[in-house]
């Protein structure tokens, strides 16, 4: 005898502000029996949007994975096998550095129906929270999103530098020194503006602006920490964090640098 198989919905929860959940995400949460959520997902809304569901924190912190990817996949499959509608709530979009594809494959392997609800990725929305557009007519007509989880290879740095558009880095705080040094080696102008936007869409959002040559020292000085999105390129000149304009942000950095 086989039990009724449930189903799984992978939901992209956006960058953290509940206002950036999609209607499809809200609907899926309302129909969930179990929600497995990540640290960067907007989990604070769960009591309101999924009041009848069991909420399980499978949060990953950099360098500290309490459950592990295969453990998460097992949990998803186990709950679905018991007939539950499992919502896997992730930060941003499930298919952007979110290991969503692995979870979909795990469901396929177990014969469990699975659906993906895209989300607002931090790659685009976190720069936007600091007033940084990734493209701007006449300034940048392309953007590349890279993972800073591991240092880039020399040929990757050369191609990135050669493209000349905007570079967006996720999970890049730890590898910032190797990235900035590598891009300079590959020929990028050390005066290229760079922004680090921490905790976008939360009330603790902060934008640090400098140049490719100066950002490492600046980030170290002000204590930039994960989660942060890095933006490298001329579009950073359009940045404004709430009321602070790019001039103020740059002046603030220069002041701090002068103070040493
Ligand atoms: N799937 C996610 C990305 C997961 S990787 C998405 O599409 O957004 C995790 C990285 O995303 C973090 O290290 C950070 O670089 C970025 N990130 C996610 N949410 C963020 C936020 N609110 N503020 C700043 N960076 C964020």
Automatic annotation (TrEMBL):
Its EC number is 2.1.1.107. It comes from the Bacteria. The keyword NAD does not apply. Gene3D superfamilies: Cobalt-precorrin-4 Transmethylase, Domain 1 (3.40.1010.10), Methyltransferase, Cobalt-precorrin-4 Transmethylase, Domain 2 (3.30.950.10). The keyword Transferase applies. Keywords: Methyltransferase, Porphyrin biosynthesis, S-adenosyl-L-methionine, Transferase. Residues 7-213 form the Tetrapyrrole methylase domain. One of its GO terms (molecular function) is uroporphyrin-III C-methyltransferase activity. One of its GO terms (biological process) is methylation. Pfam families: TP_methylase. NCBIfam families: cobA_cysG_Cterm, PRK06136.1. This is uroporphyrinogen-III C-methyltransferase. It comes from Diaminobutyricimonas aerilata.
């Amino acid at each position: 005898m086989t039990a009724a198989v449930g189903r799984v919905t992978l939901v992209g929860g956006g960058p953290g502000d509940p206002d950036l959940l999609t209607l499809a995400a809200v609907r899926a949460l309302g129909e969930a029996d179990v929600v497995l959520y990540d640290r960067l997902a907007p989990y604070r809304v769960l009591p309101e949007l999924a009041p009848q569901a069991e909420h399980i924190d499978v949060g990953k912190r950099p360098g500290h994975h309490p459950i592990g990817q295969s453990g998460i996949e097992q949990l998803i499959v186990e709950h679905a096998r018991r007939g539950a509608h499992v919502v896997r709530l992730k930060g941003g979009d499930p298919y952007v550095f979110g290991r969503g594809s692995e979870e979909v494959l795990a469901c396929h392997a177990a014969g469990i129906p699975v659906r993906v609800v895209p989300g607002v990725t931090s790659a685009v929305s976190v720069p936007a929270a600091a007033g940084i557009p990734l493209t701007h007519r006449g300034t940048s007509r392309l953007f590349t999103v890279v993972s800073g989880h591991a240092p880039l290879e020399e040929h990757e740095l050369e191609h990135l530098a050669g493209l000349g558009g905007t570079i967006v880095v996720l999970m890049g705080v730890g590898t910032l020194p190797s990235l900035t040094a590598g891009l300079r080696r590959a020929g990028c102008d050390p005066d290229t503006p760079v922004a680090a936007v921490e905790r976008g869409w939360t009330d603790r959002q902060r934008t640090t602006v400098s140049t490719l040559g100066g950002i490492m020292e600046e980030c170290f000085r002000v204590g930039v920490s994960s989660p942060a999105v890095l933006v490298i390129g001329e579009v950073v000149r359009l940045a404004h964090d709430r009321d602070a304009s790019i001039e103020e942000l740059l002046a603030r950095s220069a002041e701090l640098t002068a103070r040493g």
